[in-house]
Amino acid sequence: xxxxxxxxAPDFPALRYRAANLRRxxxxxxxxxxxxxxxxxxxxxxxxxALYFHELRYDPDDVSWPGRDRFxxxxxxxxxxxxxxxxxxxxxxVAELPTYGADGSRLAMSTLDTTPGVEIIGGSLGHxxxxxxxxALGLRxxxxxxxxxxxxxxxxxxxxxTWEAAMSGAHFKLENLIALIDCNGIQADGAIVLDIEPVAxxxxxxxxxxxxxxxxxxxxxxxALSAARAPVGKPKAIVLRxxxxxxxxxxxxxxxxxxxxxxxxxxxxxITEFESLAEKTDG
Length: 283
Ligand SMILES: Cc1ncc(C[n+]2csc(CCOP(=O)(O)OP(=O)(O)O)c2C)c(N)n1
Ligand SMILES: [Mg+2]
Description:
CATH architecture: 3-Layer(aba) Sandwich
Order of helices and strands: HEHEHHEHEEEHEHEHEH
Bound molecules: thiamine diphosphate, magnesium ion
Radius of gyration: 18 Å
CATH superfamily: Thiamin diphosphate (ThDP)-binding fold, Pyr/PP domains
Number of strands: 9
Shape: globular
Structural class: alpha/beta
Helix content: 25-40%
């Protein structure tokens, strides 16, 4: 049995410190490779801290524990964030992080399900929610109390398969399914191409119990995840407005934060910039 079962008393300083550690791990990874999808990772660090260190039930010593809550990262290219969370949670060794993106590394730039703690293969966008629907249906048929959390992106809302999955989740009344929609305002070449707004109203219209929050506010994330436990006979959606590069002002201000490549010596300056603002302790 895991010892990190959901507690109703969130320790916010501890969670903010975890989020800072996730960002530290990501800077280590991007520095090792010289580049990476760090903008997105820094943007969802607060969400992953709230999930892995407050909301999810899992056993870091047994990632296949059948009763675990599943976290599906639909945007495989956000892998840097998942590697950071799995290392901080003790599933992966912290010492392995600098291999991110290197040939032969388990910490690929897009997720591989052969790496411990990874539920689905990533890379081809628009498939995570459909797999989440299938898993949530299967778990319910098995009588399992486990829940399925699917991270997906604003870019993926331009794909028809996302809306097919949204319709199915509502049809099957999958209240064990929670979509975590990262609206970071960007896709590959800069700003979002198609107008996808109003995002929350679209999910409500598709039959999902929907909340919209600041995705970089840990207290708001914890509260939304807590509200999403309610048995309302519908799947839940949380629309998170996040800032790519959050915590490193130089990356935050980049117009094109989809893929960040900077010279080797500049990573040190970015890390110094981050540390001047970051949480240093958990209390
Ligand atoms: C089906 C599919 N089409 C295109 C791509 C290429 N691609 C990789 S990341 C990306 C950007 C998608 O936008 P979003 O998911 O919002 O990512 P962000 O730029 O915020 O990281 C694209 C188009 C892909 N991986 N899969
Ligand atoms: Mg995006």
